[in-house]
Amino acid sequence: MNGSRALSRLIEKLQALPGIGPKSAQRLAMYLLHAPPAVAEELGEALKGLREGVRTCRVCFNYADEEVCPVCSDPQRERSLLCVVADSVDVAALERTKRYRGLYHVLQGLIAPMEGVGPEKVRVAELLQRAQQGEVKEVILALDPTVEGDATALYLIPLLKEKGVRVTRLGLGLPAGGDLDYADQLTITMALEGRREM
């Protein structure tokens, strides 16, 4: 936008967000420019509140408004079951299923040696401390089937078993509604290896 520095700056800032390209940034900026003033004001307040109001749960390290998140403070949750995820978006995905009733532990990242991210840079020590307290009987590793997810799982499995907890990992394979002929070889192999008796 050659005519307005303010509009160009907004487009530039929006484009810096993940998943927002130049055209999407321009569309969003134009929407905000033409929307009622209250829309932009509410967006600004929400962004300001994000930095001021969101904190990390002291128990599971998920994002929360309070010192302890609603999941950790819910007495109805199964305390012997702990699901380990890489970040908070994974918690949201699991909660949408309404099937998991245990607790979570958010690592806030994955071990990635090639990028200089070791176990000390994610919440591994805190996970091991929770496993050692005796309340947790099973840890579910809900980590992405990537090099980093696998490296993290391989690092955690012996350490968790040493604490006397059962360690499981989410099943992998074909998605519901997927076509076998469109699946790649790795997905089909994982589906075969992860098969279960009916």
CATH class of the largest domain: Alpha Beta
Q: What characterizes the major β-sheet?
A: 4 strands, parallel
Average pLDDT figure: 91
Low-confidence stretches: none
CATH architecture of the largest domain: 3-Layer(aba) Sandwich
> Structural class of the secondary structure composition?
alpha/beta
Report the radius of gyration as a whole number of Å: 21 Å
Q: How are helices and strands ordered from N to C?
A: HHHEEHEHEHEHEH
Number of domains: 2
Strand order of the largest sheet: 4-3-5-6
Number of helices: 8
Could you give the count of β-strands? 6
Q: Helical content, roughly? A: 40-55%
Note the beta-strand portion. Answer: 5-15%
Tertiary shape: globular
Give an overview of the whole structure.
By secondary structure, this protein is α/β, with parallel strands linked by helices. It folds into 2 domains: 5-53, RecR Domain 1 (Helicase, Ruva Protein, domain 3, Orthogonal Bundle); 77-169, Dna Topoisomerase Vi A Subunit, Chain: A, domain 2. It is built from 8 helices and 6 strands; from the N terminus they run H-H-H-E-E-H-E-H-E-H-E-H-E-H. The strands form 2 sheets. Strands 4-3-5-6 form a 4-stranded parallel β-sheet. Strands 1-2 form a two-stranded antiparallel ribbon. Helix 7 links the parallel strand 5 and strand 6. Helix 1 packs across helix 2. The longest helix has 17 residues, at 37-53. The radius of gyration is 21 Å and the shape is globular. The model has no long low-confidence stretch (mean pLDDT 91).
